[in-house]
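Hi R.,

Here's the chain you asked about this morning:
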Amino acid sequence: MRGHCSRSCQSSSTLSVSEQPLAFYVHLPWCVQKCPYCDFNSHGLRGELPEARYLEALLGDIAEEASRAPGRRVASVFIGGGTPSLFSADAVGRILAAIDHHCGLGAEAEITLEANPGTAEAARFAGYRAVGVNRLSIGVQSLDDERLARLGRIHSAQEAAGAFAMARDAGFDNVNLDLMFGLPDQSVDAALAELQAAVDMAPEHLSWYQLTLEPNTRFAAEPPTGLPDDDALAEMQDCGVELLEQAGFARYEVSAYATPKRQCRHNLNYWRFGDYLAVGAGAHGKLTLDTGEIERRWKHRHPNTFLGSALKTAEASRIAPAQLPFEFMLNALRVTRGVEAELYPLATAQPITQLDTVWRTLVARGLVEPLPSGRLCCTPLGYRWLNDVVAAFLPE
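And the predicted structure, written out as tokens:
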């Protein structure tokens, strides 16, 4: 994918709903095995991958979702999981062709596919490039074999480097590497050494984030030993950000770092409270209706339920006006520079005066920039305490 925002991504008070950017998320839920830290809707394979059956269900789901946004072209597609690279290039090509048929994919559309570094998946990279994928996101997670084993990963550090080389050989000039820090028995120096090794590969984008023990994961029930303390985590974060900036990566979101003009457009659309259709087991979408109301829809979460249901949508609901400030800020304030103040009324159909009371309180505490700046943006202090800033917008 091309990492910079096109002109259509820029906010403008003159844009109608039909002219606003639209993204498309596709969820492919299976992995070879479930990682103990993962809280995504992913499921370890038991037997053969039901590619043909799931593809048939997806194609119907794509047609249904597209009918809800007539006339809106898709600016980005993100195929996530799970491990999407378990699916064949032919299946991915048919998914993209269906989106193009029903919605239209612009020539500059950013099309990302998540992939694992295993040799079997990496061998398919050229096929994915041939069917239109133009950005890969490779789940490296660590570049140390011992830590990879403790994370339950089934690839090696050598395979990770090999997968990146295969991506280049396949013609990908826009690659993200996912890398974690704060791993069991990981020192500050070790974390920075792994980050430097990732930087040395010269990807266009890095997603670098702390291992957290999420509810309903095996690590939450059985925490690994040797996790770094808060002081070590803070030092990893601060030194890592400095290392990345010196290497030419700009931090533009909590855990996202990009070389110039290589920010992830699909994720920026999320953070700018943009609309996105979503298909596949457990996928969640958001769409602004012609009335100005915002609707969220969830698909049946378990793959078997999704496959067995004639109606793929499990639930749909409208966002209450009182909830909109929190919903908007939960996304927008993740971006290091925030968003243009004029985006709030455009994206929510609510007056920006709705934010006045809370915003003034946060300004007084030094957590956000004053509105005359023209941006809804945290200060460096506020960015450090982002969860508290966002929570201030929860309805009473």
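The CA atoms of residues 153 and 216 lie 18 Å apart.

Let me know if you need anything else.
M.
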